[in-house]
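help with these tokens:
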Amino acid sequence: MNRTAHGHLLLALVLLIACAGYCGAQPAPEGVAIRLLLPPDIYAVPGHEINIYFDNVVLVPNINNYIFDITCNRGRQDAERWRYTPAPEDVGQFTITVQVSDATGNLIEEASSMIHVVPADAGADRDVSVLVVGDSLTAGGYYPTELYSLCQPEGNPQLKMLGTRKGRVEGAAHEGYGGWTWARFCTHWSDGDDYRAKSPFLRLKGDKPVLDFQAYCDEQNDGKGPDFITVLLGCNDTFSATDETIEERIDTMFGYADTLLAEFHRVRSDTQIGILLLVPPAASQDAFGSNYRCNQTRWQYRRNQHRVVERLLEKFGGREAEHLFIIPSHVNLDCVNNYPARQEPVNARNETKVLRQVNGVHPAAPGYYQIADTIYYWLKFRLNK
């Protein structure tokens, strides 16, 4: 073979390899676990959409390298999700099974969930008090406000939302604080009048701050514990963890979670507490570059988040008799289209505009509304019980 032909062959081989890695699905490496993570139960309400986004329930760097197959007699399978908007006659429950195969068709994993479709008028006109607790995902007020709005039409409970922080409409309230952790709600006490200076659940006993949820309820709910509490925490507890430190971080987080949840139940043992499964981040590294430059990658945070969800399912699954519940918020969030994005030039020498995601862990308003949907469906399910 002459030198020119050899060069052409080499170039063709390089292009073929590049295209194989870039343009299509590839077989999964042998023995690689994708850690398919379906919650045991998913809730739905007639007239409202529920989704299972495939990239949210497996831990893989490139979702396009895998084939998903849904077994279910309801809803439809799209490229990136299963979606379903139940009708009133769909009230009841049914099973959905997700199978994941590699590009050669070899089954890797499968899992099933029970879909519960709740009557649209579940809990109609009941007086219900709700406390929403969280970090910056809650502090913006989007999903607490949307939860309140979802309960306004006829056929819904009369929602009383507790909280020292107000939502985006009158009647919506919450306890959401940017950057906070389970530990901070249990321990944070400092000088100053800023709302972030002290945990709302701490009070001075002598000169020592102590957890006192009863005092909080005295101020916010006429001394009564709330009917429902939802908690969305874990992002800040584990954001900077590595594969070597994630288990220790989660262990520490769970220690404070046990303390706070026990305090909630000390005041009212039958308060129904819903633990939201930590939602996945934006789909693109662009979002993390925009927020964190070179200090965190999307893939590391995604691994952390997935492990948190695994551990939350292990810790809180099957504890309904203790009035502790899992809210499957990680399945219903569109991480491609419902995170903030903006148009910007492709580079300094080319003014062609492309759309890039610009926030790694905080959804845009439609994403927050999907979180509110998931809480609303769970709340209606519990009220139907």
The first helix runs from residue 3 to 22. Residues 121-385 form a domain with the Rossmann fold fold (CATH 3.40.50.1110). The two ends are 77 Å apart (CA to CA). Residues 1-30 have pLDDT under 50 and may be disordered.
